[in-house]
Amino acid sequence: MILLGFTSCAQSQNKKQTTKRSQSTTTTAPVPKEGLAVATFAGGCFWCTEESAEKLKGVHEVVSGYTGGTVKNPTYEQVSSGMTGHAEAVQIHYDPKVISYQTLLEAFFAAHDPTTLNRQGPDVGTQYRSAIFYKTPEEKAQIDAYIAKLNSARAFQAPIVTQVEPLKEFYPAEDYHQDFYKTNPDNPYMQSVSKPKLEKFKKKMEGKLKDEE
After folding, report:
1. pLDDT over threshold 60, residue 20
2. Is residue 213 one of the residues assigned to a domain?
3. Secondary structure letter of residue 153 according to DSSP
4. So what's the pLDDT on residue 5?
5. Is the N end or the C end of the chain the one with fewer CB atoms within 10 Å?
6. Which pairs with CB-CB distance under 8 Å and at least 24 residues apart come from 183-191?
7. Quick check: is 10 in a domain?
8. Annotated catalytic sites, by residue?
9. How many domains are there within the chain?
């Protein structure tokens, strides 16, 4: 879909690469290294979400993938159709001694617009929904409390529509999606959508970024 002259996340893909799903993708999420924790977020196209998360101090690895749907080991084409129920998401492997889950929540809400239902900029569909996938009741309580705080403070011009869902299966995306922002800097979507979002994110998270060390 094209909106306001922007290329969408789905349209910017290299179609030749999508035919190599079975050859280039692992089907299980990587196990975090000892001492690291994992958080899972969906905030629109995962290309920019991944790059934003990787900028944070204490984040060791970010994996782009799919979660929240009904099809086992889905392909990018299937998820992009909006028919599988999956969201484009990222799993963040982080050191809780350096960065807290609360700070990750703050970064998540700084990185996208949580008030647009099933939409982020030119990307429209349930696969681009705003969602947080929790692993424990404690995480859910923390998420709910922070959303309530943001709504109460009217931090955004409209109510937050972010879904809070239990984490089930997470499927890493095809290899070419990993580090897409870094490896495709001249991509039209990177230039028109992702880069401006990333610059805004960096200003909001000043003091908590790796490049400030």
Report:
1. no
2. no
3. T
4. 42
5. C
6. 187/12, 188/7, 188/12, 189/6, 189/7, 189/8, 189/9, 189/11, 189/12, 189/45, 189/47, 190/12, 190/47
7. no
8. 45
9. 1
